[in-house]
């Protein structure tokens, strides 16, 4: 793949805890069909990527989405589990990231990470965080109760993909997102692997497989118009424009 998908491809950092509890090292993989129903081939680590647009303050902004799936931990080797993780990046008019959103099938809370430049602009326009909030860019809690800005990220010197940190299996939750320009939160990298970057559209090649596998629960937050079987859309989901106090930039 080329273009925005390649430019902003994330570095995925999976925590490994040795000798403490369940620690399934099976990586995410390619979704394959081959006439037997969908499954995950963990020997082919794959991240699915696509681009969309969203309107904020009357201006169209590019978005890049990355999403990956894990095999089940049950007795069906390779079968697709309900577990999916990812990140959605919204870009400013200058091509630099403004917002990163952690995508997870394990939570109904929308976790956002904002750029320092966006937060500074919000501070200038709104004068500080609202009660119960940490960042000036956040809306009142009673308007968006399940939306939280986790942290602000440094502005990188050039447009680049983020680090996406996952805690140890079995949860594999997204613990934080960082700009690559920020200090690493890893003491030691035990192993390094490469993944294939594949267009989201390829998933449609296996048609409607909802009868073969349950979709992830409760859902992956999604802002596009796609309805692939492995991504459940919440049609009531508020657009990004309504989740933050967007300043004039």
Structural class: mainly beta
Question: Whole-Å distance between the termini?
Answer: 31 Å
Helix coverage percent of residues? under 10%
Q: How many strands in all? A: 12
Number of helices: 2
Total number of domains: 1
Q: Report the mean per-residue pLDDT as an integer.
A: 79
Share in β-strands? 25-35%
Roughly how many Å is the radius of gyration?
A: 18 Å
Largest β-sheet summary: 7 strands, mixed
The order of strands across the largest sheet is 9-8-7-6-5-4-12
Shape: globular
Question: Low-confidence stretches at least 5 residues in length (pLDDT < 50)?
Answer: 205-236
The H/E string reads HEEEEEEEEHEEEE
Write structural notes for this entry.
By secondary structure, this protein is mostly beta strands. It has one domain (4-241). It has two helices and twelve strands; from the N terminus they run H-E-E-E-E-E-E-E-E-H-E-E-E-E. The chain has helices spanning 4-7, 116-126; strands at residues 11-14, 30-32, 39-41, 46-56, 59-71, 80-91, 97-104, 110-115, 147-153, 162-166, 174-179, 196-199. The strands form three sheets. Strands 9-8-7-6-5-4-12 form a seven-stranded mixed sheet. The chain has a three-stranded mixed sheet with strand order 1-10-11, with no helix packed on it. A hairpin with a 5-residue loop joins strand 7 and strand 8 (110-115). The two termini are 31 Å apart.
């Amino acid at each position: 793949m080329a273009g925005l998908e390649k430019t902003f491809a994330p570095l995925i950092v999976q925590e490994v805890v040795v000798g403490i509890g369940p620690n399934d090292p099976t990586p995410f993989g390619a979704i394959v069909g081959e006439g037997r129903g969908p499954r995950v081939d963990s020997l082919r680590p794959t991240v699915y990527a696509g681009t969309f647009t969203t309107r904020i303050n009357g201006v169209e902004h590019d978005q890049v989405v990355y999403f990956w799936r894990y095999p089940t931990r049950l007795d069906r080797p390779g079968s697709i589990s309900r577990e999916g993780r990812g990140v959605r990046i919204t870009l400013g008019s200058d091509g630099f990231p403004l917002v990163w959103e952690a995508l997870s099938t394990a939570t109904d809370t929308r976790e956002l990470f904002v750029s320092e430049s966006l937060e500074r602009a919000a501070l200038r326009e709104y004068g500080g965080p609202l009660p119960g909030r940490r960042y000036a860019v956040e809306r009142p809690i009673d308007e968006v109760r399940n939306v939280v800005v986790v942290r602000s990220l440094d502005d990188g010197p050039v447009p680049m993909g983020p680090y996406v940190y996952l805690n140890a299996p079995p949860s594999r939750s997204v613990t934080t997102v960082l700009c690559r320009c920020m200090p690493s939160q890893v003491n030691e990298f035990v192993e390094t692997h490469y993944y294939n970057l594949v267009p989201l559209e390829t998933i449609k090649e296996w048609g409607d497989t909802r009868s073969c596998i349950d979709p992830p629960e409760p859902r992956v937050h999604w802002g596009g118009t796609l309805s692939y079987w492995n991504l459940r859309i919440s049609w009531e989901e508020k657009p990004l424009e309504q989740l933050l106090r967007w300043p004039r930039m």
